[in-house]
Amino acid sequence: MANKQKKNIVASITDSIKDELNFALVQFENISHQSMESMRHDLKKAGAKLQVVKNTLFEKSVNQLSQTNSAYKKIRKESFPLKDKSALISFTGEWINGLKKYYEFSKDNDNLSFKLGVIDKVFFNHEGLTKLAQLPGKDQLMAQLIGIIKNPITKTTRALSSPMQKLVFVLSQKSKQTN
Question: Could you tell me which of 64, 66, 85 has the C-alpha nearest to residue 74?
């Protein structure tokens, strides 16, 4: 590849990880083209973009960004040099959906795993991203919260209506006995 092409790719990667506040670098090995395209399609539906990157070009992008941002300095210090094939997932909107979607793929395929990532300007390693991906999503948390709030109200309503139901039952039994 020509030097100018590499510079353009580095600039593209730099812009991608600088503009998107949330991204993850993931590892893939021995995955079929069909599986990769399926994963790319599902990630796109979840608001994430998958882009295969060369490790050296990603390292150059992070080195450029580390001059002005401490999160990238931490990436450089803890994760370089990168090994194995890498892909960059940049998240737009709700990052948890794309993170969960990739995690689902990685559970089914041992050749996929997280390497590192920056979520809300905080650096995460492999273990951190895996833990984040296992957390419940925003919709699920909202449903649980509504259930917790609704549960005492439902119990109170049942407790208040229960004596009336018993009274009606006793009166109906009494009326049957008299007939």
Answer: 66
